[in-house]
Amino acid sequence: MIADDDEKWLAAAIAAVKQHAFYMQRAIDSNNLKDALKFSAQMLSELRTSKLSPHKYYELYIRVFNELGTLEIFFKEETGRGCSIAELYELVQHAGNILPRLYLLCTIGSVYIKSKDVTATDILKDLVEMCRAVQHPLRGLFLRSYLAQVSRDKLPSIGSDLEGDGDAHMNALEFVLQNFTEMNKLWVRMQHQGPSREKDKREKERNELRDLVGKNLHVLSQLEGVDLGIYRDTVLPRILEQVVNCKDELAQCYLMDCIIQVFPDDFHLQTLDVLLGACPQLQPSVDIKTVLSGLMERLSNYAASSVEALPNFLQVEAFSKLNYAIGKVVEAQVDLPAAASVTLYLFLLKFTLHVYSDRLDYVDEVLGSCVTQLSATGKLCDDKAAKQIVAFLSAPLEKYNNVVTILKLTNYPRVMEYLDHETNKAMAIIIVQSVLKNNTHIATADEVDALFELAKGLIKDFDGKVDYEIDEEDFQEEQNLVARLVHKLYSDDPEEMSKIIFTVRKHILAGGPKRLPLTIPPLVFSALKLIRRLRGGDENPFGDDASATPKRILQLLSETVEVLSDVSAPDLALRLYLQCAQAANDCELETVTYEFFTKAYLLYEEEISDSKAQVTALRLIIGTLQRMRVFNVENRDTLTHKATGYSARLLRKPDQCRAVYECSHLFWADECENLKDGERVVLCLKRAQRIADAVQQMANASRGTSSTGSVALYVELLNKYLYFLEKGNPQVTGDTIQSLAELIRSETKKVESEPFINSTMRYIEFQRQQDGMDEKYEKIKMEWFE
């Protein structure tokens, strides 16, 4: 309803303006000065309305403003026809109402200044004082806006044709400052015009008119002759006095932003203490972070665009002033939210990184200031504040692209202490990703310890509690990051690398049972790489107390892997024990190697019960044991006997057969003559054949015919015989192979031929045709293959 009334009143006012403007134009066309003034005054009287909203009033004002341009041209032409400009200036003052009178005075005053019959200073002073007569906030604001508009190109600044005496530019400055002051007062008073229930509406309307006030500051910034001295001593103090004294949130926020945006960067830098000194005096509700962030952004851009300006930043101690000012603002605004205070320090940090990137002490000081502020709030529960902290901590990472540099900041981990677990973990992920992305070289145990302290949200459970609700895929990805990080740690100094491994172990073992199966393997393999580096050196190049000896590292790994058996990961523990056994074998540490095999056997016996897992584990044991060269006869026989015993006790007969014939390799090593026992090889193969026979019998009993699967066992055995025949085992003869081949021949007549069988036969035929192999293969008859 109110909006409809607004439209009606505006339409009526515009219609009246058009009518009076028509008669005014007709009077102008007939050079009738008296009627022109009469109808122009009537037209201007429409601006006396109090019914319109600011937005609608502005539309009406624009209509009138366009018509006043015509009137100004007419006044100028009248002076050219001999009419005294002074008489015209007096004549318009006879208008009946003050508002039309002042609009006419401003219009004729513009012509008066251009005529140079009187100084611009006198006219401007006269007009700005007379405008005080209109104290209605809306009407007065637009009147003064009109005065500023028509006088903008008529100010007696240095270099203009209206310059006048030496102090004329100061008079122009005084005029703009006085007009700005009065306009701001009127603008602020608008908030009190009307019932309190419509306050929000009025604030919105006031916000739409803010540029009318701000244009004065733009004019000030463009005045010739306003140098740094005048700005520091006159302009800035007068503006800030008005900003602080108005005690209005909207005005203070807008005008502070205007000051920052319209005046030159070097002015801000040289008057930083004055500008910042006003910040704590602003209303608590003012969005101070927007003001200060705008200032710091401008100064940062100034430093980036001008290398010559950087010494000035140091000279004026810009960092210290900004840091002190932010501290004062936070102290003065006791109800300032944590997110807002962190945002302030975030902008200060970005400014510091941009301008003082080589001053880590400054960066650390900002972090310390933030810690001091956060100490009053405890851990952050506010999501917005937590996100700001993440941005705050990420800024140095993005700037330096080197975590080692971040580790030098003593207050960095102190800031992270105020994050909740989820946010701490998110920040830890960002830190680890930075290491991996930038290929950062972390080469000392102290740096590793500090890094893992920063990343503890990713490595440890929060307060010792396991989070079972986390998405399993996300958890795997997070721990993969930790694993990749462990592999990145490297030092050329073996002793230092050993300390790194000990340090990593300390942190990883505190990670909880869910993490250990994912984080222990990379630690083990990193340690094994170090052991292989040490293998070629002296037995103990660092002395008896050194930590970087293969034996001591292997003892550490034994204790580490043992933890996995306590967290239900026996399969993984067995694999790692066997890896460690290989390393111990390479270092010729028989006792240590035997100990690792013993632990692997115990795990197999006590923890691994699934039949498939047993088969896999046994193959790993046999494969690893076959490569061992460090054992004496007794120890090797003990371990071999155990392995063959395990093979015979597997649940499924086919698995038994395969495991037993795999054990044959334990008695034959090509590169070691004392590990070639042909008889025991054949015993294993015959034992495997007996098991295959049992499988075949069961297949015949259950199906009444042979199965392809049972015949495959015979073919696999045949391949083993062929392998040892070619390796020169004297106990494997052509007769033995021939008998097995005949058995396969008889069984294959009952089942469809397999590609595996055909491939084996083709291989035998091929080998019979090769030089040096014909004697070994001559007793193997191929007629049954036809």
Please provide a written account of the structure:
Helix 2 (33-45) runs antiparallel to helix 3 (54-80). Residues 538-544 have low confidence and may be disordered. The longest helix has 28 residues, at 2-29. It is built from 39 helices and no strands. It has helices at 2-29, 33-45, 54-80, 85-91, 98-115, 120-130, 137-151, 168-189, 199-208, 210-222, 228-246, 249-262, 265-270, 272-278, 288-305, 310-315, 318-332, 338-355, 360-374, 383-400, 403-407, 412-416, 421-437, 445-454, 456-459, 472-488, 494-508, 516-535, 550-565, 570-586, 590-606, 611-626, 633-648, 653-663, 678-703, 708-726, 734-748, 755-768, 774-777.
Concise summary:
72% of the residues lie in helices and 0% in strands. By secondary structure, the chain is mainly alpha-helical.
Task: Name the descriptors.
single chain; 786 residues; mainly alpha; protein transport
**Beta fraction:** under 5%
Distance between the termini: 107 Å
Q: Tell me which oligomeric state these chains represent.
A: single chain
Could you estimate the helical fraction of the residues in percent?
over 70%
Q: Which blocks of ≥5 consecutive residues have pLDDT under 50?
A: 538-544
The biggest sheet amounts to: none
The pLDDT mean sits at 88
Rounded radius of gyration (Å) = 46 Å
Global geometry: elongated
- The chain-level structural class is mainly alpha
Number of helix segments? 39
Let me know the number of strands.
Answer: 0
